[in-house]
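From the shared-data thread, chain only:
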Amino acid sequence: MRFPIAIEPGDDKHAFGVVVPDLPGCYSAGDTLDEAIENAKEAIELWLETQIDAGAAAPNPRPIGEHQKNPEFAGWVWAVVEVDLSTLSDKTERVNVTLPARVLRRLDAKAKAAGETRSGYIAHLVLSS
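Structure, as tokens:
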């Protein structure tokens, strides 16, 4: 999903402020324009993750042109932040993985030692790296 962001220009004494008009209460900032955009991506992901965890759907972003008409954002810079919703979903998906028997035995032994299932152990490894 691509979310428009409004960026309030900063200067030597003030950070660049960021508002995500489609996500009420979602805002961020950065000392540079690039940092502001990167921080906005993190803020959007956290906002969406909170909504998804609460069982709500992610809202569809509106076109930048609609937001630019809002006088509240007069003189602000606009950008678009891309967010992959699939990385925020906890929906499980069954996959088929082929591994050598030797590797599978080691995986199962490590999972058992960690007190986890095979799938849980793999997920833990991926999310902690």
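DSSP finds four helices and four strands in the chain.
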